Amino acid sequence: MEVKKFVAACVGVCGSVVLSSAYSQESDVDRIRTAVLEEVVVTAQKRGESLQEVPIAISALSGDQLAERQIRTAADLMMSVPNLQVNSPLGESVPIFSLRGISMSDFGLAQNGPIAVYYDEVYKGNLAILGLGMFDLERVEVLKGPQGTLYGKNTTGGAINFIAKKPEFETGGNLSVGYGKYDHYSADGAFQTPLSESWAARMAFTFDRADGWMRNAFPGAPDGSATRQYGLRGSLRYNPSDIVDIVIRASTSLQNPRNYTGIALPGPEGIGGEIYGMFGLPADFREGLGKREINTPDISKRRQRTHALAVNADIQLSDELTLTSITSWDRGTFLNSHEDSDGTPLTTSEATYYGKTKQIAQDFRLTSDYSSRFNFIVGAYFNHEEIDSFTDTNFFTDVDVTGDGVINAEDCVAGGFFIACNVFNQFEQEKTSYALYSDFTYDLTEQVTLRGGLRYTHDKGKLNDFMAQVRAVDLTPLINTIPGSETDLFATTSKRFTDDNVSGKIGVDYSPADAILLYASYSQGYRGAAFSGQAFYDPSELTVAKPEKVEVFEAGFKTELLDHRVRFNGSAFWYNYKNQQFINVDPETTAAVLINLPKARIYGAEFDVQVMPTANIALSTAIGLLDTEVERGTADGINVRGNRLINAPSFTMSSAIDWTISLGDWGAVDARVDVAHASGQYYDILNRSNTYENGYTLVNSRIRFYPHDERYGIAFWAKNLTNELYYTNLIDASGLGYTYSHVNAPRTYGVTFDMRF
Questions:
Q1: In CATH, what number is assigned to the domain containing residue 502?
Q2: Euclidean distance between the first and the last CA atom of the chain, given in angstroms as a whole number
Q3: Tens digit of pLDDT for each residue in 663-693?
Q4: Number of H helices, E strands in the chain
Q5: Is residue 661 within 8 Å of 20, Cβ to Cβ?
Q6: Could you give the CA distance from residue 506 to residue 517 in angstroms, rounded to a whole number?
Q7: How many separate domains does the chain show?
């Protein structure tokens, strides 16, 4: 059924292409585009290179392509990057990336994901400091596979680079304003100007405001999943000569919307059914509600605030050597207050998450550009991160356990320190990472290049003042569960780790002819140890997960054919995945333990085809194939050997058609249709049936009218055109009588006006 839906969508799109092509030929339109594919220059290997000359699997999108594809959030990247999944269990502002089956199941604010996120080469490790980065971008690069010999932070799964536009020495700017469904007001813009012969400045902003799309049936209560956010970025560039180029960036962002809302999928006895039934209370089966509807009086606001400062400096020490320094400071706070996990009038489960993060980092690297056969990059990296966090969760605070007409501490005690209780933890965490890294290339011949690199990493971490309590509804502490003191309700404990790792990469690439590149490599990835930030009930939950490691064998090709009208790239890969860190949640008690999955394997392939059959038509298709399997491991005491990894659909595909039609003296029209499909996937390592998503197909479209000088334009757009519904997250909470879930946004549409000056 999934394949049929995808084929049907593609047939419709292809039919539109044929009609458009015929119209274009008959009208003898002006040649608005050059009849060659756009060259994308990337810095994935810390040098400016054509995407087609980089011997690694990488997807790159320019700023114009981001606008054409309506990519405004991290989740939108899934429409264009095969084998990429994005989950947002804490809201769109804190995306969790999965790439080729490498993912993170723990969404606690203490964790750093296996897919590194960089803004302008600054690593943003913690979810609280991600902020808003999807505006005024030069490009986005998605690198697949372990990164370490070229990057400040080492990772097992890959890296996503958001690269903002630099100030240029000319005055100009752009502005885009829009309006859409759910009273969605949006605006983006930038302005730059030279301040002198050596200094230039650029200011950029983004703003979004929309009502919630999650309909709330509770009388007088607001709808959920609203949008309220803005971001500002100011940049100064000092470029007195070809020798020195320094960019100073300061940014801030705020997101303060009505909260995202979870959907509780009732179990056989209804939401909270077993426990409510014990006390003669009715459960809730969400009668009359759709999957994008809730019925709750409790819709709070989520608040995320970020501040960042970075200095990127490139200094030409000679014609062959460049010294690069990247200095950064980040601060972020995240507060998700009273998330109603069941989305009903019941108070089965309500959670509050808070995290405050500070990060400083320094990266130095020396890059050579010799005319000889040998070149190198050597670097040193330092990162220090501090986190303050607390979480509290209410369970069944509408149950009068003692039957005396008052819900207080006596009810929590009588309820076994679970029913009519508040469960709370808090801690401080510090992590410091030091690294030395290197990357080398040696040209054996004009066609053959050897590549290699090594990285040494020293990580250490401290978890301080960890405390967990069970409290009454009025937050009066009743017992200390971690460290488990019977005499001191405010007793604390601590954990530490220290790790050293050496990892590397070796590969070869071969160019038998112009515009043809073949490559093969073996690489190792490493992700440092981690503390469990979701321990609540017992000292055994407070674990330190060992570092996860991966070995990757990969081979691929990149080609351009027919005078650069056809681009065909592909790769095949095999991963040996060891000690994957994942959170093991007991569905009955909600107890969570951060553990290691000893061994898994991943293999797959990716293909990307882009074609320009005429100067005004562009076609593209990207395919991802994936097969994952646990080879050794247990969860909840169950052997999970043979199970699939989470967030790893076996088939992903995206196709797009972009065509331009001349309107003569009036200008031109650009029309684009995007179709993306993902097959079924599990959100639980136990592969439970209630945590399986069957797969989905999304269709987006956009049509833009503009004059020939392209100084302004007006675009009409639609996202999720077929109103497809699928689950973006599923957690088995059967002990509470439901499966916790999030769903994707419904069909939206609107109009955008843009101008350049």
A1: 2.40.170.20
A2: 49
A3: 998 999 999 999 999 999 999 999 999 999 9
A4: 4, 41
A5: yes
A6: 17
A7: 1
